[in-house]
Amino acid sequence: MYKLGSLIGALALAGATTIAIAGEWQALPDKAPEPADNPTTTEKVELGKILYHDPRLSSSGTVACASCHNVMAGGEDNRSGSVGVKAQVGGRSSPTVWNSAFNATQFWDGRAPSLEAQAKGPVTNPIEMGMKSWDDVVARLKLIPGYSGLFAKAFTGSDVVTADNAAKAIAAYERTLITPNSPYDKYAKGDLTALSEQQQRGLQTFSETGCASCHSGPGFNGSQNGQGVGDYIKFPGIENGALEAQYGFSKDLGRYEVTKNDADKHLFKVPTLRNIALTAPYFHNGKVKTLEDAVAIMAKTQLGKDLNPQQVGDIVAFLNGLTGEFPKQEMPRLPAYPGKTFDFE
Amino acid sequence: MYKLGSLIGALALAGATTIAIAGEWQALPDKAPEPADNPTTTEKVELGKILYHDPRLSSSGTVACASCHNVMAGGEDNRSGSVGVKAQVGGRSSPTVWNSAFNATQFWDGRAPSLEAQAKGPVTNPIEMGMKSWDDVVARLKLIPGYSGLFAKAFTGSDVVTADNAAKAIAAYERTLITPNSPYDKYAKGDLTALSEQQQRGLQTFSETGCASCHSGPGFNGSQNGQGVGDYIKFPGIENGALEAQYGFSKDLGRYEVTKNDADKHLFKVPTLRNIALTAPYFHNGKVKTLEDAVAIMAKTQLGKDLNPQQVGDIVAFLNGLTGEFPKQEMPRLPAYPGKTFDFE
């Protein structure tokens, strides 16, 4: 039994069933926080699920949110760069949509302060979904008869089919995309058999190596306090010529591209480790193909440590224990544009 | 009340609840025929649904069967030509997967004699899913741990992860993609209120104009007797310079491309009219954008008739009555390739 296991055991015996184990190890909440101006409702979630899966939100009619953030899989596309309209490949690897509701900011550079703001970005990005404007998107949605009723159910007002409401609905849907009850969560709640011995050893190594100093909190994604403190980290933190030559991590200036503040050069949002086994390849540029390599590189570039193969294997085993339970979802029906055709490019 | 309605009414009063109204108007069966060597089972359907939605069956990892045959919509992509890997656009418009189990042959040129044979085609087509070979697909599937168990549940034998079994599973899933209980079906079964007065008039016009001579049977897709008789039709049947100049229908030699028999030039499979309102644009090249135009062009090129706007409107109203009920489906979970990355192009 490892030290943390003992602490957890003690807390479990004392009847603690949720979060805040030893002040550090926390289970994933069952519900995501909701902004005051966009409470989650069944109607909004249903509309959002439809919009999220509707490729008509792209210029070609072929790219939906779900194309690069596949909820049937790990919430992204398992590619280094995502493929948008006209086979254009994005410069950063798609982050997972699963548990993104627990990120204080969105995108690798944190440029969106909310899921609502994030949802609007890719649709009009020329290399992602390629729509010229949200006005064009809304015009399309208004031509699809079924959408009027769906928006009217989800929102009040006289003009409900709007970009803001579409983004709110998509965000509301995304707040339901939570994967609780991973082996780690069960362990954190007191079931000491939920992680194997190797996984428990990996948790210990993860902690001792210092990984949790950034990958903290129930999402293993930083403080998420909304102040940005602890949510961004310089990557690579320690320059390494060989790794740079191999992976080109530093080509991307990260958060600097948003703020143009020199201090933000190469800062990236701390990504969640939830379901990390399902979201290869790794890092902002998706150049690292295996979780083993990702763990070893992180230790080297962020903590100046060389892990041995057993340590890497143990941490990877632990990270596999962060794969949660995916909620069952019914496939949405996309409302039709009966007998008519959009001018897809 | 129109003549056909009367006949149906008489039959309904006599207690007839299914098919064979006046020898011509038939409701869609609730079950699709199954080949002797591939009986439909729950396990096969579940595996097939997963494979059907798995973009890792494409060279880029971005194109699944569902990409061009979207079961959340009308079973295709509402484009004139589908977009495959590297943004390549196919030469023919994607046919709907819904009710494809009622087609005796598959593809516009009928080159696949079964759903099983069809399922194998697009995966290795260089402009569709772009895999170099099914051996490569199988090699990938074998690297995904979850697939072994899914194939083992669905099939017997020592080497179950095979191309044949993948195709069988996809076909078994597709046999569940049936949309019964359209307004027309309810009408055909005796509910004379299921079609509006205009739709009933449209049914009459559809019949009198001669549309049903090709679009016959419960699928409105020809005889489907497996002999090919009545399953193919020359299109355009009557040459029309103005329409040819506008739409270029004759650029495609149709079934001739399969048989190299001169008599098969410009022959195409009679496509189903089920859910036709959801599958714009129309015809093998998808050049006709509205159902109104499609109906008028068909009457002109196949039957030598000029329909007036009311006749067109009535037939379109009737065709809207062929939109069926789509079965609820749970989203599949795609098994992971944990912590590893495929070499997607």
UniProtKB/TrEMBL annotation, chains A, B:
Cofactor section: heme
Keyword vocabulary terms for this entry: Electron transport, Heme, Iron, Metal-binding, Oxidoreductase, Periplasm, Peroxidase, Signal, Transport
GO CC terms: periplasmic space
Pfam families, per database record: CCP_MauG, Cytochrom_C
Record's signal peptide: 1-22
SUPFAM superfamilies for the chain: Cytochrome c
InterPro entries per UniProt: Cyt_c-like_dom, Cyt_c-like_dom_sf, Cytochrome_c_Peroxidase/MauG, Di-haem_cyt_c_peroxidsae, MauG/Cytc_peroxidase
Pathway: One-carbon metabolism; methylamine degradation
GO MF, one annotated term: metal ion binding
Chief site of localization: periplasm
PANTHER family recorded: CYTOCHROME C PEROXIDASE-RELATED
Name the record gives this protein: Methylamine utilization protein MauG
Taxon lineage: Bacteria, Pseudomonadati, Pseudomonadota, Gammaproteobacteria, Methylococcales
